[in-house]
Amino acid sequence: MIFQEIPIKKIEPLTPNVFRLSFLSKEIGREAQPGQFVMIHPKKFSEPLLPRPFSIHRLKGNRVDLLIRMAGQGP
Questions:
Q1: pLDDT reported for residue 62
Q2: How many domains does one find in the chain?
Q3: What order of strands is seen across the sheet that includes strand 63-69?
Q4: Could you tell me if 28 and 66 are in contact, meaning their C-beta atoms sit under 8 angstroms apart?
Q5: What does the DSSP 8-state code read for residue 53?
């Protein structure tokens, strides 16, 4: 398991509730496959927000893309 603090490279709105979030990670890009999950925990929020699993949508070299749909409560 790899724990990293990674800045978001880009957030691209696809619909009013769906976004593509992109970040760079050599380790994840090298070892992961689309359909696997990464655990995301925003640095800005700590309690009581727990890490959330997000499926990898696409990998391009070191770039990792996640598709995120806003739903329910959250910061």
A1: 92
A2: 1
A3: 8-13, 18-24, 63-69, 52-60, 37-40
A4: no
A5: E
